[in-house]
Amino acid sequence: MGLKVIVVDDHPLFRAGVVAALKTEENLEVCGEADTAIAARELATRLQPDAAVVDLLLQDDDGLKLVRELRQMDPRLKIVVLSMLDPGVYAPKALQAGASFFVSKQEGPAAIISALRRAVANERASTPAGATDPRRDLSERELQVFLQLGLGRSTQEISTALGVSVKTIESHREAIKAKLDLPHANALVARAALWTREQGLAR
């Protein structure tokens, strides 16, 4: 029997491409697909997969949070994060959350397959040393707020989306400004907007 893998990504075409690539491999069985964190948790509980490929940008929840939850549910589960987000910022966060490897969506199927096989062989990527991007110093929640600001969301909208108070979001904004050495709120929004465009996320 092959290694059982679930694929979690909310972009149907991209998810289909990943699934198709995995199905060409011997000893890899795609046993389930999910487009939300809720569905991913249900699949992991019901199917008991050996590994999961997880995108960080999901419509209903934060991918880093999902990685952590899946590992708590089943510590033996190996997770490969597949994302279009900046690996210099997000790879360390993903590894800290419990992923074995971080693969950029700009890489081909071979990179995903290699990461999966290495993960189930109990290999793990090393956390990159020597942070050069100050955004790596942001907490997971601060990164969420920074991303939402870059997408043009207001403090109130971010508060609603993340389920926390406006005051909490304002505190996060102040912390981000300090960590990124930004002089004022307009500079923060401009930096966040530039970053989302660089990530290909701007609409």
TrEMBL record:
Entry-linked CDD domains: LuxR_C_like (cd06170), REC_NarL-like (cd17535)
Question: Where would I find the Response regulatory domain in this sequence?
Answer: 4-120
Protein name (database record): Response regulator protein VraR
Pfam families recorded for this chain?
GerE, Response_reg
Q: Which residues carry this modification: 4-aspartylphosphate?
A: D55
Q: Does the keyword DNA-binding apply?
A: yes
Lineage: superkingdom? Bacteria
What is any one GO biological process for this UniProt entry? phosphorelay signal transduction system
Question: What UniProt keywords are attached to this protein's entry?
Answer: DNA-binding, Phosphoprotein
